[in-house]
Amino acid sequence: MKKVYKNIFGEVISKAKAEKLDDYHLYYYEKDSEILKEIEFLAEDEIYNINYFMSHDEDEEQIINYLKEKSDLFDIEKRESAGDFIIATNKIYSLTVDEKPLISKTVFYHDDPENFICSQILDTETLEPIPERTTKCWYTSDENGEKYAAIEFSYQEDGKLELAIDKTPNPDNDLEWEHYEYSTFKDLQSKIPTDISYYKTARLLPETVDQEQ
């Protein structure tokens, strides 16, 4: 593993400088590659949180036992492809609270792996998504060409749209934002040149992708 020390702003620093800071992050990369495997978050040289990026050929139980030795708080992320999308499954363990993890699924476009379009929390017992804890975002660019979450969507218990908040009239002034519900979704769609029916319900992926799987 290759180790890289960074300050809390993500800037690369030396080990000597890191150890003089109150807080720093330690990144582990696979040898001879830029594939990130693990991030340790440290305060006063004690690990208080770990993000671990699990590959498909790793044994999850072994990873959990390995991380338990280092911290009570850690997040294991596993990514998979589905058509044009990436699905990241995160299991967040807080061992001082519960042995069971908080599980979430987050969807990104392959060509935009930084901006999520859907985030779901799963029920820890049934492992089914909780619609009212699902969030979706639709993106566009502002007048400076910066991409931002222009419309944010939340959902009811039955999975139907509860509220869509459209920031496009003026992203910086919430008094000008427009609000839509399931019954008025067609009015929102009429403003958008592309099909946004995916955002009408809390389903994880567009129907066409589910059918391809």
Summary keywords:
13-stranded mixed sheet, 4 helices
Structure in words:
There is one protein chain. This protein folds into 2 domains: 77 residues, no CATH class; 131 residues, no CATH class. It is built from 4 helices and 13 strands. Strands 2-1-3-4-5-6-7-8-9-10-11-12-13 form a 13-stranded mixed beta sheet. It starts with a strand and ends with a helix.
Hey, roughly how much beta strand do the residues contain?
Answer: over 45%
Uncertain runs with pLDDT below 50, 5 residues or more?
none
The residue fraction in helices comes out at: 10-25%
Number of domains: 2
Arithmetic mean of pLDDT: 94
The number of distinct helices, counting runs of at least 4 residues, comes to 4
Bulk shape: globular
Structural category: mainly beta
Largest sheet: 13 strands, mixed
Query: What's the multimeric state?
Result: single chain
How far the N terminus sits from the C terminus, by CA atoms, comes to 35 Å
Q: Write down how many β-strands occur, each being a DSSP E stretch of 2 or more residues.
A: 13
Brief characterization of the structure:
Helix content is 11%, strand content 49%. It is mostly beta strands and 213 residues long.
